[in-house]
Design goal:
single chain, 252 residues, Jelly Rolls
Length: 252
């Protein structure tokens, strides 16, 4: 049976049990799960001071400076977080749990990039004082590309594809193993990069901005899900189907 056939056949059984005991927590290796409908602290007038991690790892992100707080919004009728593209971001500054030096990762982002400027949906770093160390989901304005980046002292390796900014919500799936990384949009494979990157032990995280205080995200983020291993095809199908049903996005 084709991947699309498996997805359609099992969609309702697999997708509608989200939360504790269901997807995505029922798939092993979950280390980061930010959900716009869960654990968002409104510090006043919709300004978000914290966003709790639903995974067992407790990788919560916060913003103590009032002027740098994103705001609550909706995306396809569900709660989400809006980043202004100027100075909004949330962060966990130390002790990010769950992604060691030998780890592969599989990541899912639901959101939008609405302005043709450099934007970071999220950034996982191995060292906050250095440039390009870790993993990031980016939109790059110069090349108008949607990008999944893995980087270390040896340089940057990107899986990327041409993308036109839009308010339309999408599901991006990204995977990294030692020798390869890939990015898909709404279940459609877009690009694969096959150059090795290793030793990316994550210590800190940001949502809406890179750790170098650039790439301020302009757009919405509804959900981020990250596992510390390369998921099997059936597991990727299950998470994409869960997200598609939840966010009203057609997944191929």
């Amino acid at each position: 049976m084709s991947r699309g056939g498996r997805r359609q056949e099992g969609m309702w059984r697999r997708c509608l049990s989200g939360g504790a005991g269901g997807l995505p927590a029922s798939i092993g290796g979950l280390v980061w799960w930010l959900d716009g409908s869960y654990g968002v602290t409104d510090a006043g007038s919709g300004a978000v001071s914290s966003w709790l991690d639903r995974s067992p790892s407790g990788n919560h992100v916060t913003q103590g400076t009032a002027g740098n707080r994103p705001t609550t919004t909706t995306l396809n009728g569900r709660p989400a977080i809006l980043f202004d593209g100027t100075d909004d971001f949330l962060e966990k500054t130390s002790a990010f749990a769950g992604i060691g030096a030998a780890a592969s990762i599989t990541a899912f982002t639901v959101g939008s990039a609405t302005t043709n400027q450099n934007s970071a949906f999220w950034d996982l770093t191995t060292d906050q004082t250095l440039t390009n160390r870790g993993f990031a989901h980016l939109y790059e304005a110069a090349g108008t590309t949607m990008t999944f980046r893995a980087s270390d002292a040896g340089g940057v390796e990107d899986a990327e594809y041409a993308y036109t900014v839009s308010a339309t919500a999408r599901i991006w799936t990204m995977s990294h193993a030692t020798a390869t990384r890939s990015i898909t949009e709404n279940g459609v494979a877009k690009n694969t990069n096959s150059n090795a990157k290793t030793g990316l032990a994550i210590v800190a995280a940001r949502v809406g901005r890179l750790h170098q205080n650039v790439f301020n995200h302009a757009g919405k983020i509804g959900e981020i899900i990250i596992y510390n291993r390369a998921l099997a095809v059936a597991e990727v199908d299950a998470v994409e189907s869960y997200l598609g049903a939840r966010w009203g996005i057609t997944v191929s």
